[in-house]
# Entry
Amino acid sequence: MDTSDNAKRGNPSKWWLLFPVVLAGLCVVLMITALYYRDIYYELSDNYRSLSFRNHQLETDVTRLRSALGDPDNPPLQVKPVLTELELMDLSKKGINNPYDDLAADLTNNPTLDVPSERVLIFADATQVCLLGPERALAFYQEADNYGYALLAYEVDDSARVSWRVLSTLPL
# Structure
């Protein structure tokens, strides 16, 4: 009687064993794919947050620059720059002990900066350089017959070398 029941059912035992194995393999593939894309997601998320923070810094710098230039009683190079104690300590660890004077001197000791529009700006007077905050400065420039203010970004490496980049210019 057992053989006739198996004959009627078609002996399904082989196919029912294959189904869980295929399902488990599919789950493993999906899990590996999820882990791979999770790492990519976290990396993209970190990059977005970093870019968003930098964009906010630039917007703040531009707003501060515009407000300083718009107030004739308070020209921008007389505004007392503000660096936090943490930022001062960080610059001190990198070898910049007096950031207000040392960074201004660095800019005027290497007075020419190329601008993407093929212009060369000359920064000659250290008293005309003002730090706006961490990694940002405002300086008076000259070029041929023109002059004005330049918004600059600076980076200090661990050996106290400063690299400057022109972000924007405002001719007068």
Notes: The chain has four helices and six strands. The two ends are 105 Å apart (CA to CA).
